[in-house]
Amino acid sequence: MTLKATGGYTGRILRVDLGREQISEESLDNETLRKYVGGTGLGAKYLYEEVPPGVEWSDADNRIMFFTGPIGGTKVSGSGIFSVVSKGPMTNMAGTSQANGYFGAFLKLSGFDGVIVHGKAKKWLYLHIHDGTAELRDAEHLQGKDTWETEDTIKKGISRQSSVYSIGPAGENLVRFACIAGDHGHVAAHNGLGAVMGSKKLKAIVAERGRQKIAIANPAQMTTAAKV
């Protein structure tokens, strides 16, 4: 299945309400995708529009967002990179962090450009994204585990071709410089955004590698860029 959207994008994002344990989907229009290029640009747009200045980093109304960019999931080197955007604990202001690995590519191949999370869960949960859908799963058994243990435990119950980004005890205990780590060694290390996940009781976010093809506006130029 080929995704129909502006070249390099799916035009779909997920919204996750942890308090209600509800997930919805919305579309991204082409104008927005052209104006706010890449994961950090899209995340900054939604943070500015949806999180008022008075909201604290640990409030339920704060957002934590995971976005990939137009090369995510393509043949270009680095296509697994993604951005995490939120109001972070280090400054209580807008913050972003990027990580390598597979998550950005697998998120796109699962059918989505990004995920916007708000609210606070009543118990520990993780988000599982796969084949154009997503669900919240219980993560109480993962509490206290470090990120490598968390990744290995989650992968025992799903496809091994998955990217798992999670928090360890530092994030769970709201240490203000806590990171988000995944794919056995890649880290979104800046601005303490692991603590934001901890404040929401979101232990991990998981993207399985999907089978969807990504529409490329100019395949020949993409091939040339991939050789650079």
From TrEMBL:
Aldehyde ferredoxin oxidoreductase N-terminal domain location: 9-211
Pfam family, one: AFOR_N
SMART domains: AFOR_N
InterPro entries in the cross-refs: Ald_Fedxn_OxRdtase_N (IPR013983), Ald_Fedxn_OxRdtase_N_sf (IPR036503), W-dependent_AOR (IPR051919)
GO molecular function, one term: oxidoreductase activity, acting on the aldehyde or oxo group of donors, iron-sulfur protein as acceptor
Gene3D superfamilies per record: Aldehyde ferredoxin oxidoreductase, N-terminal domain
PANTHER family cross-referenced by the UniProt entry: ALDEHYDE FERREDOXIN OXIDOREDUCTASE, TUNGSTEN-CONTAINING ALDEHYDE FERREDOXIN OXIDOREDUCTASE
Protein name, as recorded: Aldehyde ferredoxin oxidoreductase N-terminal domain-containing protein
